[in-house]
DNA sequence: GCCGTTTTCGGCCCGACTGTTTTCAGTCG
């Protein structure tokens, strides 16, 4: 029986779409498969019963044909149309899509004309001039392909949110003060706080007369390794870190529409444009316009909009914060509600640090140093969670050391109280979740902690069903108050465990156990894509920096961004509570 | 391939840039 989980099915449909594009079939077919994949990926419940009961066409976006494909897959373990495509299109061509400048059409043309299918062959044929001879290609195309392959091998395609933030900030700071810059904003996936970033987009409002000087500053920036392209309104560079940075300049009047446009997401924009069409308007990066008789944009008749919020308003929506622009429920919500109704957190709403390590295990600073750093940053409490005894590699605490640590925490708390400091350290532990789902200490020790975070650190590649059992057992344990980084993924490095997060969320919500948002930019786990499910189940979370040093405490900001992206309202975030309220919640098992 | 208070056929978001052309296709976001 093939695996029928949502992710696997969505992956297969996506793969089919990729092969369709490479095979040159009608692009709308491929789009239909992509849409279906996205829909299934976003479902809050398992798709399996819909397959076994043959009710797939109940889902909007899945018609007879795709339904039949998936019924066949459930029976045979293969999608017939995908298998056929694979006979036509060599698998190794898929990797070519990562080469910038090469799309499905050119890839197929080169493959057919020269009978090659590997990247190495492509490099050869570019170098010996064969590619340049093909119609529609030329010497520049071949050169660009070679260059792009070189970049691809040298640099990774995406980077973490913290890396992108740092690079973007550099350009932003320098460009902000250039003469003629009227407005400037980061756009793209970085503005949406995606967990990994491909290109960095910066948008500027300026008069036409000033654009040349602004581009000059941009292209001459010390971080620039190579200029990739430059036009009247747009320029692209590659930085020494291998990141592509695009700067676009528009007129000040166009800035709001352009900002919306370049913030995306693509999926969000598609719906926005459709909404405009429904009102006989058209939306592009220059603004919202009426249409002429032929249904084309009438640039002479704009709808006046002075901000992104105005554009949303014209299209029947309240302002949608950038983090939520993913076409994952924001349209239904903001048609009826205002931003305040979402009750999303700001960094300033976070009152305490939960999940941090000290020198007692693998942290860099003592408990006192961590506590004082928290105080200096304006927090009211620290939930200290060193590693448990099984995590010997990280200096996990034996029972004896646990007891000693408690003494130290008690002493520090008394000292703070005696000095009139309104600050408290909670005794916590990041307990390894053992392979059978039990925690790492006997009950009498577990009872001595204020709270326990149960985390996965070893035996990550268990079968999904076994892993779910392991989690369920840990969630049912009355001492577990928070589940740590639920998939244990490391972004761009290691996939997390394949556990069914929808089921985990249901169980955690039912047992009043929180699942953390691990705010380390390496993790950002639980994934924001499960936000709607979490909201529906009333799941609690905590924004946890998992700090191993003082700087790590500031990762809280990334966690707040992900919490917003995942629709977590303040009342479902433990560390928006006061210390007293939190104590009560910990005790209410 | 999917969808339908304009439609069961004919649409499906839109513009900039590039490189190849000499009016446009392909790619990108």
TrEMBL record:
Residues 54-73, 129-148 form the Helix-hairpin-helix DNA-binding motif class domain. Its main location: cytoplasm. GO terms for cellular component: cytosol. GO terms for biological process: DNA repair. Its cofactor is Mg(2+). It is found in: Cytoplasm. It catalyses: 2'-deoxyribonucleotide-(2'-deoxyribose 5'-phosphate)-2'-deoxyribonucleotide-DNA = a 3'-end 2'-deoxyribonucleotide-(2,3-dehydro-2,3-deoxyribose 5'-phosphate)-DNA + a 5'-end 5'-phospho-2'-deoxyribonucleoside-DNA + H(+); a 5'-end 2'-deoxyribose-2'-deoxyribonucleotide-DNA = (2E,4S)-4-hydroxypenten-2-al-5-phosphate + a 5'-end 5'-phospho-2'-deoxyribonucleoside-DNA + H(+); DNA(n) + a 2'-deoxyribonucleoside 5'-triphosphate = DNA(n+1) + diphosphate. Repair polymerase that plays a key role in base-excision repair. During this process, the damaged base is excised by specific DNA glycosylases, the DNA backbone is nicked at the abasic site by an apurinic/apyrimidic (AP) endonuclease, and POLB removes 5'-deoxyribose-phosphate from the preincised AP site acting as a 5'-deoxyribose-phosphate lyase (5'-dRP lyase); through its DNA polymerase activity, it adds one nucleotide to the 3' end of the arising single-nucleotide gap. This is DNA polymerase beta. It comes from Cyclonatronum proteinivorum.
């Amino acid at each position: 029986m093939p695996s029928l989980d949502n992710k696997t099915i969505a992956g297969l449909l996506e793969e089919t779409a990729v092969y369709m594009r490479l095979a040159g079939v009608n692009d709308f077919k491929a789009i239909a498969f992509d849409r279906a994949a996205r829909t299934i990926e976003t479902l809050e419940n398992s798709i399996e019963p819909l397959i076994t009961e043959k009710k797939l066409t109940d889902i909007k976006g899945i018609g007879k044909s795709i339904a039949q494909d998936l019924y066949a897959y459930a029976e045979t373990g293969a999608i017939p149309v995908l298998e056929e495509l694979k006979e036509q299109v060599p698998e190794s061509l898929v990797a070519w899509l990562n080469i910038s400048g090469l799309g499905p059409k050119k890839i197929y043309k080169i493959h057919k004309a020269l009978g090659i299918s590997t990247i190495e062959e492509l490099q050869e044929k570019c170098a010996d001039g064969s590619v340049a001879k093909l119609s529609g290609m030329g010497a520049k195309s071949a050169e660009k392909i070679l260059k792009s392959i070189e970049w691809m091998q040298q640099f990774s395609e995406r980077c973490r949110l913290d890396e992108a933030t740092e690079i973007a900030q550099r350009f932003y700071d320098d460009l902000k003060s250039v003469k003629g810059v009227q407005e400037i904003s980061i756009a793209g996936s970085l503005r949406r706080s995606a967990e990994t970033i491909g290109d960095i987009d910066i948008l500027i409002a300026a008069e036409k007369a000033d654009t040349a000087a602004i581009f000059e500053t941009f292209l001459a920036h010390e971080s620039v390794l190579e200029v990739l392209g430059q036009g009247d309104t747009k320029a692209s560079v590659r930085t020494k870190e291998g990141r592509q940075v695009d700067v676009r300049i528009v007129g000040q009047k166009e800035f709001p529409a352009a900002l919306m446009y370049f913030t995306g997401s693509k999926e969000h924009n598609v719906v926005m444009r459709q909404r405009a069409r429904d009102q006989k308007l058209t939306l592009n990066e220059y603004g919202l316009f009426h249409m002429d008789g032929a249904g084309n944009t009438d640039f002479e008749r704009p709808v006046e909009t002075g901000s992104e919020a105005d554009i949303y308003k014209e299209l029947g929506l309240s302002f949608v914060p950038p983090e939520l622009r993913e076409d994952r429920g924001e349209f239904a919500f903001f048609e009826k509600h205002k931003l305040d109704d979402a009750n999303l957190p700001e960094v300033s709403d976070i009152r305490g640090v939960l999940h941090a390590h000290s020198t007692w295990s693998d942290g860099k600073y003592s408990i006192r140093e961590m506590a004082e750093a928290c105080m200096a940053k304006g927090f009211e409490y620290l939930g200290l969670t060193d590693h448990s005894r099984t995590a010997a590699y990280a200096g996990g605490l034996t029972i004896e050391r646990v007891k000693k640590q408690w003494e130290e925490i008690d002493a520090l708390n008394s000292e703070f109280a005696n000095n009139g400091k309104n600050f408290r350290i909670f005794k916590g532990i990041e307990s390894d979740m053992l392979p059978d789902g039990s925690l790492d200490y006997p009950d009498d020790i577990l009872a001595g902690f204020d709270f326990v975070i149960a985390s996965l650190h070893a035996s990550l590649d268990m079968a999904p069903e076994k892993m779910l059992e392991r989690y369920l057992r840990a969630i049912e344990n009355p001492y577990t108050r928070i589940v740590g980084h639920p998939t244990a993924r490391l972004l761009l490095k290691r996939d997390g465990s394949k556990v069914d997060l929808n089921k985990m969320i249901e169980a955690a919500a039912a047992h009043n156990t929180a699942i953390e948002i691990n705010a380390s930019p390496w993790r950002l786990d639980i994934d924001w894509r499960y936000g709607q499910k979490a909201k529906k189940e009333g799941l609690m979370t905590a924004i946890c920096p998992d700090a191993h040093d003082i700087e790590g405490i500031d990762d809280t900001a990334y966690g707040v961004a992900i919490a917003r992206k995942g629709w977590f309202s303040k009342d479902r975030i433990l560390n928006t509570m006061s210390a007293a309220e939190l104590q009560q919640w910990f005790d209410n098992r």
